């Protein structure tokens, strides 16, 4: 008999499947502390949670029989994935079940912010009959900017069209064909900020999306813009928003999520008459809670019964013989993917991986998953080696895997090419005895550096003095260069420079570098 512990008030209707299973015993509990969970978890084979329970390393460490942790929802920020993977515990989520609920909350928020419904309600029930203060705006003929056009963003865009809005969208994975199908015009974040009357965000919270709307973006906005965040706290800079309201740029905002949840009593959103708030209710509908609970229950049963499953967000076991051979390359594969993934702009349409040397006569698919994970990790939340291929496929990214008989120079070589609308970029990496992971080629240029830390990738014209100029500019801005690699094909032609710096290069220093006449492009990467 498998024992399943269900926390956080997950829908009973949704887990009926588990109650009905002859080989499962279900127990429901709420509000346990970490210590209490650590004490009881050894009895259970599966743990189901929403977002309230933090599934920590300690809890999983105590879960002697624990095979699976199920998250009834999308975000797995409350589960220590690394700890689960380390212990062979499968973590599953339910990515589709709350899309409509969150999309509809976004619309409710957009209409509420347009018509100030919560503020009007508060005054009316307080005994005031104030019809002058609450003159709102219509959605029809307005421009809606949608940042993040995945499951929820696409549904929001569809509904906005029905309201007669023009929709501008931005998503690094949105191709023109898909945008056209959705009736969405593509734009950059800054273009959208400058043109939209309403802006809604639907991205994960990543290092790239944290504060993607901050003071510079607010400064671009039309007077009277309205902002909605039903995705994750931190995508919009909360303090910059309050400032933009105070200076009259933003007319209103609606937030379901906060940088810190719950927000403290003195949070500036809580007493601002232009900001309406809800306590992370995006997924809180009867239907969504049932959907996510059904999805997660089905998967938990598959995993407990050793049947195939699909929504794992962490690592599956790899056969020992394959693992022994290819495990040493996993780190290189991820780094190579992360490196090249950060150098391309726009939607990736094809990822080509070519293995040569020692890597040709083994099953490289787990290694390919690591590489694809690395490529996608800057754009997508929760991407890992279990779901990387699936995510690439659902976003229309074609994956080509090739082997080439031998590498003339290296005993092993992984060559990665990413194709986008604006062209393609290639990088190759090798595991070098005594030196570890090295990137040895970028496009047509031979290089040799360790893919780690803060990097500056500079394309430039091979002119005397350029290295000195870059070095002086960085040095005078207190950016210390740890290593430097220069690659060129011909004297005086185009060339590439890869610098490792001891700290992140500030954005204004990048701008100064870009102004050097010999420089073609500068990219700042962190690995
Ligand atoms: N408020 C709630 O209760 C609630 C409920 C469900 C989901 N969510 C959150 O909503 C967000 C969207 O969920 P989803 O199911 O649509 O996810 P999704 O993965 O389907 O879509 C996210 C999209 O963001 C895009 N993206 C990544 N980086 C970007 C960037 N820098 N700029 C623009 N776009 C970028 C991705 O390409 C992807 O298409 C997530 O943060 C999720 O955790 C909140
Ligand atoms: O369980 C919840 O209510 C949170 C839902 C949401 O944030 C998610 O990521 O799915």
From TrEMBL:
GO terms for molecular function: NAD binding; phosphoglycerate dehydrogenase activity. Keywords: Amino-acid biosynthesis, NAD, Oxidoreductase, Serine biosynthesis. Residues 455-527 form the ACT domain. PROSITE patterns: ACT, D_2_HYDROXYACID_DH_1, D_2_HYDROXYACID_DH_2, D_2_HYDROXYACID_DH_3. Pathway: Amino-acid biosynthesis; L-serine biosynthesis; L-serine from 3-phospho-D-glycerate: step 1/3. It comes from the Bacteria. InterPro entries: ACT_dom, D-2-hydroxyacid_DH, D-isomer_2_OHA_DH_cat_dom, D-isomer_DH_CS, D-isomer_DH_CS1, D-isomer_DH_NAD-bd, PGDH, PGDH_ASB_dom. The keyword Amino-acid biosynthesis applies. The keyword NAD applies. One of its GO terms (biological process) is L-serine biosynthetic process. Its EC number is 1.1.1.95. It catalyses: (2R)-3-phosphoglycerate + NAD(+) = 3-phosphooxypyruvate + NADH + H(+); (R)-2-hydroxyglutarate + NAD(+) = 2-oxoglutarate + NADH + H(+). It is an enzyme of class 1 (oxidoreductase). PANTHER family: D-ISOMER SPECIFIC 2-HYDROXYACID DEHYDROGENASE FAMILY PROTEIN (AFU_ORTHOLOGUE AFUA_6G10090). Belongs to the D-isomer specific 2-hydroxyacid dehydrogenase family. Catalyzes the reversible oxidation of 3-phospho-D-glycerate to 3-phosphonooxypyruvate, the first step of the phosphorylated L-serine biosynthesis pathway. Also catalyzes the reversible oxidation of 2-hydroxyglutarate to 2-oxoglutarate. This is D-3-phosphoglycerate dehydrogenase. It comes from Paenibacillus solanacearum. The lineage of its organism: Bacteria, Bacillati, Bacillota, Bacilli, Bacillales. The gene is serA.
């Amino acid at each position: 008999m498998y024992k399943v512990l269900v926390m956080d008030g997950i829908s009973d209707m949704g887990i009926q499947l588990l109650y009905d299973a002859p080989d499962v015993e279900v127990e429901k509990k709420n509000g346990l502390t970490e210590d209490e969970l650590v004490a009881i978890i050894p009895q259970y084979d599966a743990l189901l949670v929403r977002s309230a329970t933090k599934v920590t390393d300690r809890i999983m460490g105590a879960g002697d029989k624990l095979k699976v942790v199920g998250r009834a929802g999308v975000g797995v920020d409350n589960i220590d994935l690394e700890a689960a993977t380390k212990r062979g515990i499968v973590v599953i989520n339910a990515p589709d079940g709350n899309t409509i609920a969150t999309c509809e909350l976004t619309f409710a928020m957009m209409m509420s912010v347009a018509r100030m419904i919560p503020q009007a309600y508060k005054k009316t029930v307080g005994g005031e009959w104030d019809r002058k203060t609450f003159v709102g705006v219509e959605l029809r003929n307005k421009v809606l900017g949608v940042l993040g056009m995945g499951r929820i963003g696409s549904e929001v865009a569809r509904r906005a069209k029905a309201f007669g809005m023009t929709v501008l969208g931005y998503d690094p994975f949105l191709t023109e064909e898909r945008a056209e199908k959705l009736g969405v015009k593509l734009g950059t974040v800054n273009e959208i900020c400058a043109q939209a009357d309403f802006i809604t965000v639907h991205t994960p919270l990543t290092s790239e999306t944290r504060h993607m709307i901050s003071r510079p973006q607010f400064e671009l906005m039309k007077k009277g813009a309205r902002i909605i965040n039903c995705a994750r706290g931190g995508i919009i800079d909360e303090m910059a928003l309050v400032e933009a309201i105070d200076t009259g740029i933003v007319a209103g905002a609606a937030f379901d999520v906060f940088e810190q949840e719950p927000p403290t009593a003195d949070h500036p959103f809580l007493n601002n008459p232009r900001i309406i708030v809800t306590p992370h209710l995006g997924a809180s509908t009867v239907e969504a809670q049932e959907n996510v609970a059904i999805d997660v229950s089905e998967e938990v049963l598959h995993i407990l019964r050793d049947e195939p499953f699909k929504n794992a967000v962490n690592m599956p076991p790899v056969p020992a013989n394959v693992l022994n051979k290819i495990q040493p390359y996993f780190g290189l594969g991820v780094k190579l993917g992360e490196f090249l993934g950060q150098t391309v702009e726009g939607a990736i349409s094809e990822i080509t991986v070519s293995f040569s040397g020692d890597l040709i006569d083994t099953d490289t698919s787990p290694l390919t998953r690591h590489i694809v994970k690395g490529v996608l990790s800057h754009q997508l939340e929760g991407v890992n080696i279990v779901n990387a291929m699936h995510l690439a496929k659902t976003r229309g990214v074609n994956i080509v895997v090739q082997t080439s008989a031998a590498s003339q120079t290296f005993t092993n070589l992984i060559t990665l090419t990413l194709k986008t609308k604006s062209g393609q970029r290639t990088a190759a990496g090798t595991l070098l005895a005594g030196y570890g992971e090295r990137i040895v080629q970028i496009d047509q240029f031979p290089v040799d550096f360790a893919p780690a830390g803060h990097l500056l990738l500079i394309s430039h014209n091979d002119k005397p003095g350029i290295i000195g100029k870059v070095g002086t500019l960085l040095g005078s801005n207190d950016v210390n260069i740890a290593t430097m690699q220069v690659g060129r094909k011909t004297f005086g032609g185009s060339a590439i420079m890869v610098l490792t710096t001891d700290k992140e290069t500030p954005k204004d220093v990048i701008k100064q570098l870009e102004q050097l006449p010999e420089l073609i492009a500068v990219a700042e990467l962190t690995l």
